[in-house]
Amino acid sequence: MSIRPILIHPDPRLKKRADEVTEFDDALCVLGDDMLDTMYDAPGIGLAAPQIGVMSRVFVMDCVKEEGEEPKPMVLVNPEITWTSDEMNTYDEGCLSIPEQYAEVDRPAEVKVTWQDVEGTQYEAQFDGLWATCVQHEIDHLDGKLFIDYLKPLKRQMITRKMQKLKREMARG
User: CA distances (Å), 135 to each of 76, 82, 149, in order?
Assistant: First the structure.
């Protein structure tokens, strides 16, 4: 298990649709473990494979934030939203690929999702609250969409410029 580098926006890979997973093998298990390690280390509550440069429809999440509460790490392969509530929720979202930038995004308050685990077993569950927001945010990543794409153009451009500056500073070391 290893911590992998997280891509910073703007990176063209973050704007591409990820490919369906068709092989459920040891490499997929390693990817899931590495992604969880990377997410917890960041620290974050969700991480999609494209954020570490892997163009597969895989993401991990764990929205348990209460001190002393048991973590609930999840690896979702080929996830798909099959139902969304009419009721909306607004969360101040952030992203590991857009560090230290947050903005309010409206999303359905509840969603039903189907997915497979790393062995290919099929699941379905309904998520609400922070879990619903996280699922939608991560599936957006798999479709090449970032939370800033929901913002007005001026705010989006301002954040993108900040990220370009951050990347230049990181490159200089």
Answer: 9, 12, 16
pTM recorded for the entire structure: 0.96
Q: What backbone torsions phi and psi does residue 110 show, to the nearest 5 degrees?
A: -135, 145
Domain 12-172 fold: Peptide Deformylase (3.90.45)
Both structure tokens of 76:
């979702």
Collapsing DSSP to helix, strand or coil, 145 comes out as coil
Strand stretches in the chain, DSSP E: 46-48, 58-61, 74-84, 88-95, 98-108, 110-116, 122-128
Q: Which of 23, 100, 138, 169 is catalytic?
A: 138
Q: What is the CA radius of gyration of the chain?
A: 16
pLDDT in tens, the chain (173 residues): 799 999 999 999 999 999 999 999 999 999 999 999 999 999 999 999 999 999 999 999 999 988 889 999 999 999 999 999 999 999 999 999 999 999 999 999 999 999 999 999 999 999 999 999 999 999 999 999 999 999 999 999 999 999 999 999 999 98
Residue ranges of domains in the chain: 12-172
Whether 138 sits among the annotated catalytic residues: the reply is: yes
- 3-state secondary structure at position 104: strand
